[in-house]
Amino acid sequence: MFPVDTTFEVVPQFPPTTSREAVDFVLFSSTLKQHLSSSSRSSHLPIYASLKRQEADEQLRRRLVDIVDDLKIPVLHGVSVFGTKMAFYKLTRDSRRLEPRHITPDQEVVTAMAPRQWWAYDILEEEGAKKFRDVVEEVKEMCSQISL
């Protein structure tokens, strides 16, 4: 997916200080020397752990929002991963719209802040693998349009 003769790299980052149960990877173009294309949050914890899904969601949202002002590409994609299950995020630079929409907690009713359904794609299944490849190809295409 990322041949060695391209300018794309996948590199691990240090886990967040609040949790040592996950490893982060960020995909970026080394030509552009900044995070441009995708963040991925991976955990070996079960996807049914609601609190862990919420933590992953919050971390990915923070990272996407942190870099929106410096984006050179029109759309920033993020992928949150639990085992083989993936949730896809999309931040549109100009409108500053982030999907899926943030769920606001209800003070009286238990609310799933990051519903399990968001992790509907499985990388080991054809549909999930295709979705991931499509996002990667879209990012590569956007990056190829940037003049340095």
Secondary-structure blueprint:
Elements: E1 8-13, E2 22-29, E3 34-43, H1 50-67, E4 75-82, E5 85-92, E6 97-99, E7 121-122, H2 126-144
Parallel strand pairs: 3-4
Antiparallel strand pairs: 1-2, 2-3, 4-5, 5-6, 5-7
Task: Describe this structure as you would to a colleague.
- By secondary structure, this protein is an alpha+beta fold.
- It has one domain.
- The chain is 25% helix and 30% strand.
- The protein has two helices and seven strands; from the N terminus they run E-E-E-H-E-E-E-E-H.
- Strand 2 and strand 3 (34-43) form a beta hairpin.
Residue fraction in strands: 25-35%
Distance between the termini: 24 Å
Strand element count? 7
Mean pLDDT over the full residue set: 76
Specify the helix fraction band. 25-40%
* Shape, per Cα inertia axes: globular
TL;DR?
The chain is α+β, with helices and mostly antiparallel strands. It has helices at residues 50-67, 126-144, and strands spanning 8-13, 22-29, 34-43, 75-82, 85-92, 97-99, 121-122. It contains two helices and seven strands, in the order βββαββββα.
